[in-house]
């Protein structure tokens, strides 16, 4: 790999010269460790997906779809904006986006932490299955749609249909919610929720007063099919 | 139900007893009927086609003497490790959750014994299933229940599911009776709730997105695995073309006779098109793209109502590279067997009619999560029965292929077929028997 640059502290791949396949293959090497920098992503799709090692990967620039998809163990930092499905189906580790994220951020993610310091578009945390998501700005419509487990924290506002058909994901929003989706309701903020939220904010690098947030969750009224609920289906 | 003896009584063809029962049930419960199985209505099917055995103008092969190949390679277009199957009959995707652990175990055993593949379903991969399956296809569904990259890497192929024949355009459902603690844990859901699977994938829409998604799956698995795309038959010509453009190595096309574990009756019977009508447009799409029946091409797997080796042979003759069976595989395990007649009667059903797969009380131990009922299916015996059945399907298909002069079952072609009805001739694009007429096709002569 002729564009590979190694130093004592990190290895750099330039996507402007090295094919994505070679970069991802190198990052899938058995027993991988250390720090890696990917430069020149130029909106490339599928950057650093399928990682499964305790490494730190910094992507210097904007990425396209599915960056850090299905991440396991790795700490990935995207210095820029991320396209659709960043950290989709993440299992563990963390992914940080310094800019904005497009739709379906952390879709179906089972574990780990996604932090988007800017805004996240529609369907953020859709079908979330246990991961934590902290968004510094706003989230778009239908965020946390059918979300099953995990936590979504929104420091700004949420678009229409928040938490539609929610299962057991807990949602914390500091700003306004345009509208709640079917079966999503505001809930009381207990001490355990304040503590949980404080921890999530801290993990993402924020120190907001958790008492300024509202908690949302499932009313659990749609958990069984019933003709009385037909207007909600 | 009984049939009255008086000849003066006349049942309505429109409001027959099934229609009256459906209206009565709707009025009583306020809910639509949800059931398993596939379409039960009479549909144009493979029975409406016949083979033209060799005689003067064609030269047959000797049965039991001259070989007739049955192997098939799937996904050689992009994958480092394509699937090499010994027979062109595979086991369709069926979930642990819908099916018992014993049933999944038996499917793996049977398929592996004859060198073919089985497929996971909505709910993830179980260790038992992986362990028993020599070739395991891992489904990538809208719900992504249990989806994890470790299992993705353990799979032999990945099947991106857009839909299924029983419900093109619909998501899955698994009612609370079957959400056991283990099923709930695998799906990250509370036990006992009615689970709704999404009908759309959560992070892509349309073929351009799917192309990126497929590349992501290839990147994650280092381009080792074939990627299938499964569609329910509705607009097969366009769907197959778009699937190929998206990068599919294999297209799985499921007709409306394809089974389901739980779907609305109205969906099963009124959405989608019959398997017979779906194959020719799909094959035309592959041919126009130059990827049909080529070593580096895209393979077509057809499912939905395959019962016999004749059905297998007809699907291959129309252009499929392989078929998949679901309902027939469950029947081979013992589903709807007369030996369970008394138990079916206790739950208000009967052998040959049982389709309440959604309620989890299957006395055959197949469509259930009840540990006691599951004991009614011995996975070793079930696997042996399935292997026997798969061998018979293969032998039957070989018998027909030899009679048509083919040294491999995939050498069968539309020219070997005629249709018995105008409808089936038009759908399958083969001539009406005794004529040269293909309804809708340009008129050509000898």
UniProtKB/TrEMBL annotation, chain A:
Xref: InterPro entries: Glu_synth_asu_C_sf, Glu_synth_lsu_3
Its transmembrane ranges are none
* SUPFAM superfamilies hit by this protein: Alpha subunit of glutamate synthase, C-terminal domain
What GO terms are given for molecular function? Answer: oxidoreductase activity
- PANTHER family in the record, alphabetically? TUNGSTEN FORMYLMETHANOFURAN DEHYDROGENASE, SUBUNIT C (FWDC) (PTHR39673), TUNGSTEN-CONTAINING FORMYLMETHANOFURAN DEHYDROGENASE 2 SUBUNIT C (PTHR39673:SF5)
Name of the protein described by the UniProt record: Protein glxC
This chain's source organism reads: Nocardioides bruguierae
TrEMBL record, chain B:
- What's this protein's name? FMN-binding glutamate synthase family protein
Q: Which GO terms describe its biological process?
A: glutamate biosynthetic process
Q: Which residues form the Glutamate synthase domain?
A: 77-334, 363-406
Q: Which UniProt keywords apply?
A: Oxidoreductase
Which terms in the Gene Ontology molecular function aspect does this entry carry? glutamate synthase activity
Q: Does the keyword Cytoplasm apply?
A: no
Q: Where is this region: Disordered?
A: 108-133
Check the record and name the Pfam families matching this protein. Glu_synthase
Listed Gene3D superfamilies? Aldolase class I
**Which family, according to the similarity comment?**
Belongs to the glutamate synthase family.
Origin superkingdom? Bacteria
């Amino acid at each position: 790999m002729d564009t590979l640059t190694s130093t004592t502290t990190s290895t750099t791949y330039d996507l402007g010269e090295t094919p994505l396949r070679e970069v991802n293959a190198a990052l899938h090497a058995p027993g991988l460790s250390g720090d890696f920098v990917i430069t020149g992503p130029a909106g490339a799709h599928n950057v650093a997906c399928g990682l499964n090692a305790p490494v730190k990967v910094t992507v210097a620039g904007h990425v396209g779809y599915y960056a850090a998809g299905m991440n396991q163990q790795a700490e990935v930092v995207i210095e820029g904006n991320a396209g659709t499905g960043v950290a989709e189906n993440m299992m563990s580790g963390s992914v940080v986006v310094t800019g904005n994220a497009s739709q379906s951020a952390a879709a179906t993610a089972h574990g780990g932490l996604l932090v988007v310091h800017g805004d996240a578009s529609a369907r953020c945390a859709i079908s979330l299955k246990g991961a934590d998501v902290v968004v510094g700005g706003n989230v778009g419509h239908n965020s946390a749609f059918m979300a099953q487990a995990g936590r979504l924290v929104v420091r700004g506002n949420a678009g229409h249909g928040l938490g539609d058909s929610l299962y057991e994901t807990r949602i914390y929003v500091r700003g306004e919610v345009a509208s709640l989706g079917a079966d999503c309701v505001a809930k009381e903020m207990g001490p355990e929720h304040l503590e949980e939220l404080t921890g999530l904010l801290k993990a993402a690098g924020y120190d907001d007063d958790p008492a300024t947030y509202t908690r949302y969750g499932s009313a659990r009224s749609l958990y069984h099919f019933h003709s009385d609920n037909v207007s909600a289906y | 139900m009984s049939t009255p003896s008086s000849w003066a009584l006349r049942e309505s063809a429109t409001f027959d007893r099934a229609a009256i029962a459906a209206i009565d049930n709707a009025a009583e419960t306020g809910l639509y009927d949800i059931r398993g199985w596939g379409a039960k209505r009479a549909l144009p099917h493979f029975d409406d086609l016949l083979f033209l055995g060799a005689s003067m103008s064609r030269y047959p092969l000797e049965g039991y003497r001259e070989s007739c190949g049955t192997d098939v390679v799937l996904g050689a277009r992009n994958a480092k490790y394509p699937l090499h199957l010994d027979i062109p009959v595979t086991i369709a995707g069926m979930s642990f959750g819908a099916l018992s652990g014993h049933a999944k175990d038996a499917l793996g055993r049977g398929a592996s014994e004859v060198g073919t593949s089985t497929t996971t379903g909505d709910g993830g991969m179980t260790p038992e299933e992986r362990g028993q399956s020599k070739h395991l296809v891992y489904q990538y569904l809208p719900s992504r229940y249990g989806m994890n990259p470790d299992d993705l890497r353990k799979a032999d192929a990945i099947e991106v599911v857009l839909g299924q024949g029983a419900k093109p355009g619909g998501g899955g459902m698994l009612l609370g009776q079957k959400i056991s603690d283990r099923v709930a844990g695998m799906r990250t859901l509370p036990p006992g709730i009615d689970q709704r699977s999404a009908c759309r994938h959560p992070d892509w829409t349309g073929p351009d997105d799917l192309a990126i998604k497929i590349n992501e799956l290839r990147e994650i698995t280092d381009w080792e695995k074939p990627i299938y795309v499964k569609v329910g038959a509705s607009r097969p010509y366009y769907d197959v073309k778009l699937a190929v453009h998206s990068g599919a190595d294999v297209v799985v096309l499921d007709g409306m006779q394809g089974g389901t574990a739980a779907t609305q009756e109205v969906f099963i019977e009124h959405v989608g098109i019959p398997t017979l009508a779906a194959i020719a447009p799909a094959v035309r799409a592959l041919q126009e793209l130059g990827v049909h029946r080529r070593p580096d091409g895209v393979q077509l797997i057809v499912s939905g109502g395959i019962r016999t080796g004749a059905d297998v042979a007809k699907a291959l003759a129309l252009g499929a590279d392989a078929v998949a069976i679901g309902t027939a595989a469950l029947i081979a395990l013992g589903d709807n067997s007369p030996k369970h007649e008394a138990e079916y009667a206790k739950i208000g059903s009967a052998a040959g009619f049982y389709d309440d797969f959604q309620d989890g009380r299957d006395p055959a131990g197949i469509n259930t999560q009840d540990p006691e009922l599951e004991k009614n299916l011995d996975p070793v015996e079930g696997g042996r029965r399935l292997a026997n059945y798969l061998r018979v399907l293969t032998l039957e298909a070989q018998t027909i292929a030899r009679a048509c002069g083919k040294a491999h079952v995939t050498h069968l072609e539309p020219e070997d077929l005629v249709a018995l009805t105008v409808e089936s001739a038009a759908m399958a694009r083969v001539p009406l028997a005794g004529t040269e007429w293909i309804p809708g096709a340009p008129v050509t002569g000898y």
